[in-house]
Structure formats: C-alpha cells, structure tokens
Amino acid sequence: MNTRFLTLLFIICFLTGSLFLGAVSFIWQNHIIDFSALEYYNPGRPSILLDDEGNEWARFELDRRDPLPYSDIPQHLIQAIIATEDRNFFNHYGISIRGILRSMAINLYKRKFVQGASTITQQLVRLLFFDARQTVSRKVKEQIVALLVEKQFTKEQILQTYLNHVCFGCGIYGVEAAAQRFWAKSARDITIAEAAILASTLKNPSRYCLINSIENVRNRRDTMLAIMKRMGFITQLQYEQALHEPIEVIQRDSAPIAPHFKEAIRIFLESEIGKARLYCGGLTIQTTLNMPTQRAASRHFNRQFTILRKRLSDKIDGGLLSVDPQTGEIRALIGGYDFETSKFNRALQARRQMGSIFKPLVFACALKQGASFADVDKDEPIDLLFEGTTWSPRNYTRAFEGDMTLARALSMSINTITAKIFLRAGADKIVDLAKKCHLANDLAPYPSLALGCLDVTIKQAVGALSVFANDGYYVEPHMLKWIKDEFGTKIYRFEQARKRVLEPRIVGQVAKVLSIGITRYLKTFKVDDFKSEAFGKTGTTNDSRTCWFCGSTPQLMTVIYAGCDDNSALGQNVYPLSTIFPIWLNLYKVVDREGHRFTYDPSLKETIINWKTGEPAHRLSQSQDIVSIYT
Hints:
By secondary structure, this protein is α+β, with helices and mostly antiparallel strands. It contains 23 helices and 20 strands. The chain has 2 domains: 62-243, Orthogonal Bundle (Penicillin binding protein transpeptidase fold), CATH 1.10.3810; 293-630, Beta-lactamase. The strands form 7 sheets. It has a 5-stranded mixed beta sheet with strand order 2-1-3-13-14. It has a 5-stranded antiparallel beta sheet with strand order 5-4-18-17-16, sandwiched between helices. 42% of the residues are buried.
C-alpha cells in the first residue's frame, strides 16, 4: 500500500471511530432502541394466494416452530454455529474491532462494499431491526445496537434468539423448523454431521439449503467438519464418523400445487414489496390459477414426460403454459418435470427456437398482402439469394410434393413455400408483426426467420399465438390480478392493455386452416368426441432439439415444449405428435367439455376446396384432399 492510501485509511478510521463513539454514548444514555422485539419477536401473518374462484391454494409464510430454550440446543450445534459464524462470540462485546478494521481496509482497496465483518449479535440485530442493504449508515447503526444488546442480554439469550429466528433457506426459520423439515425430528436430536449442515447453510441459505442441492451441502458440510475438528470441538473419531454419515432429506408426501407458478410469484413480489411484507404482511394475493386446469395439466404432463424420459433420455424436460386467450390470464403453468430437482422455470425463463409454430404469423402477413389460402405454390428445391448469401431451405422430410395450396403448405408445415412467402410478403412486415406480438425487440429480417429461427419463452409464444383466438388482439399473459394488504386495501392491480395487431378477417382465415391440423391429429388418435372447436400447430427445430405444440379452443390456449436443457438432440424420428400432443389432448378432454365455438368475422365466406389444386369442391367428402377454408 502507498502512503496516500494509508493516510486516507487513518483519516477514515479516525472520523468513523469518533462518530461511532459519539453515537454509542448518545444512545447508551437515552435508550432509543426498544429491545422488546428480542424477547417477543412476532413473525406476523402469512400471505395467502387465491385461485380464480377465490379459494386459497397456497401461502407465503415463515416456516417456524416453537423456539427451543438454550438448554435444549445441542452443544455440537452451538459449536458449529460459533465455528462458522463468529469464533470469538463469547469473548467480544457485540462487535469485532479487528474484523471492522480488516473489512474497512478490504473495502477501501476494492473500492466497493465487499465484506461486512458481522458478529452473531450484529446478524441478530439486522434480522430484528434493520434491512439487509449494504450501506455505511446501516452498518454503523447495526454496530451501535449490537453493543446495546450485549449490555442488556446474556450471550446465551442472544445465541438462543439467533438460532430460533435465523433463516436456513427455503423459507425455513429457526433450528427447530429446519430439523423438522429436513429430518423430521427435533433439533434436540440432531447429529454432529447434521449440525454442520445447519451451520453451513447460514453462509448462503439459498445455495446451501438441503432441499435445493445435496451436493452443494456435502462439500460445505465436509469443510465445516474440518474446521470444527481444527478448533477442537470434535475429536478425530467424531470427525471421521460424521464425514461418512449419509446426507438425506425427508421428502414431503404430498406434492405442492403449481410450485413453479408459486415460485414465479414469490420472485416477483420479493423484489417488488420485500420479503418481510410478503411473508409476514397478511396480504391477500388474487392469482389467475385455475385449479382443475392446473391439476389436469400436471397429471398428464408428468405422466407423459415419465414415458419420454424412459424412451428417449432422462435429460428431457419441458414446460407448459395455458392461458385464457381473451384476457391473458394464466390458468396453468408447469415449469419442469420435477420442481424439487430444478427450480428453473421452463415456461417463463427457458428460451428455445420457435420453429414452425412461428409460421402462422408469416402466412398472416401474406394474407394482409392479398394472398389467399386457395392460392397454389410449388414445393420444390429452392436457392434464395439474400444480401449476397444463398439460402436453401429444405423440408423436414427432405421430400418435395410439387404444387399445393397455401392452406396445405401451412397445415403440413412446408418450409420451401413458407420461405418464398416470407420474401414475397416482406421480411420487414413480418418482423414488425413479431415485435407487435412481443416476441422480440431486436429481430433482423433474415430469411431463416420464416422457419422460426428466433429464441422465445413459452410465455412469449403463447402470447403471440393467442391473437388467433382473440380476434387479432394481443394481451399479455399474467399470473396476478390484484393484491390487498391486511386492511383490505388494494396495493396492486394488473392493468391489461389490449392491442389489435391483426384484422379479424386475417386471424379467422389462419385459425380455420390451423383447425385442419387438429382434425387430422384427432383422427390419428381415433378421437371422435372432442367437444370444442380447436386449432393447433406443431413445431420441430433442427435435429429435433425442441418439439413444440400449440393448441387452442375459444376458452384456453396452451403451448407445450419438450427438449433437453443443454439443447442436445432428442433423437431420430421424434415428432411433437407422438411426444407432447398427448398432453394437450388429455388436458382438453378434462377441462374443455362444453363444446365452445370460435366467433369469426361475419364477412368471411366459407369455401370448400381441393387443398392440393385449389379448385372449388361442392361439398366436404371423406377425401383428405377436400377441406373448408375462409376467404
């Protein structure tokens, strides 16, 4: 360190010390802080989540149990906590002068706040009286109050209160709650190895919570046991026995309802209103969740993915999102196969190439430019020149069928014709429509966009495709309707902004053609009693890395994908129809039994055509070549 740095450090230490001692003297004489919270800490009221029918389905609350007296807390747990959190706890007066000077020097050297030097007493004071913001003023106040707490309470009282209220991750507060949740026993009976696990958790509760990751916990526990042995808290024999003790966590019998849905709300509200208010503020949170839809979606999703994991790969995972296309309210959300294994929300966070489910937007733009689904184009090998580069799209089957209508091209997902339409309709216009549908803000008009070469979340996909079930309006998919505080006052309300992005005539024509695909899929599965009118579209990206299916009735739009998180290929001959369409089909058999019909623009005219030649037909027949479209 140079002389200037040392001089600056001395001045800061002198000024800080003077202010600190003056503040201590003032508060010491005037007793500004009320320490009753230390003896009568009240965890507050939980916040409840309501489904779309007003029934409680979950809570945000602190997992607490009756506090343990100091005499009932095992000595090896106390030693583990001391070893990891505050080795000089029984010898200081609430703060560590050496630690403060060391952290001050490090923070000055790094030129940012990177180390705090908190004692157990300071951590307890922060828990009860302050927030966790890293500011100098908060730190000084925390140190002052820690000194006052040490003046009024014994070390045993401080440690007892700390252990009964500190967070062990996953919303679990206090050693008794942690022991009961992890091992279904009292903290009085935990082993040395289990004590090391609890102590290890405190450094980073979210990372080292036993529910989240046993491997992270194992490495941290072993380090903690070595520290305890080095400090003389345990013998060599105890160390070796604890080191070889298996790490287990008791799994709860009943699976939580919509865990990824709840977790997404938790993350959002913690950032908006803070943890204290969320867990202790007695809020009433009105969500959009529909319980029958969520239960049916979870049941069929898990059943089908269990089959896929056995047949294809145990790495395969995916997500599902069902919304009311008229309002954007999310009725069901599945963020992955196993929430306990992975909290990652594949419905809201995973970005996958959109593939062929993007094509309805391409054809919608073509219709806006005057095209008709009765128009005929040729499926053939093509080489397209774009900005000096040749692009040669091929169909997924590597075969070509020759002449066909645009209706067949969309329904059968013909890449060559879609690419030609993309260029004829205008790449810039299709990019503009994609942006209006909130798919992305930075799309470039490359021809590969025609085949869905853009990364989106399921939430983005379901929002964009819902326009075809919502008269051309875009509505944002959302999970929250309103929140009331403990006094019944609304402190949050979701404001939906409906924006028309396509004309009703256009969406009616596209939806009608997409219904041809659903009819064909239902015949494949020999379903002849499907009640509601529906449309749908499959999608498969390169090398079958992602399988998509989107399908909608007037009441419910659902998008599902399957793929590996590392984006590896699913294998040969893997198609959405055999992988994820069964989930959609079985879900809708349960939740959409009313026989709903779409309301199309009255100016549309139903036309029966041969969808290969485009020639008019007099009536529908059993031939697969005769279909009904709108013009």
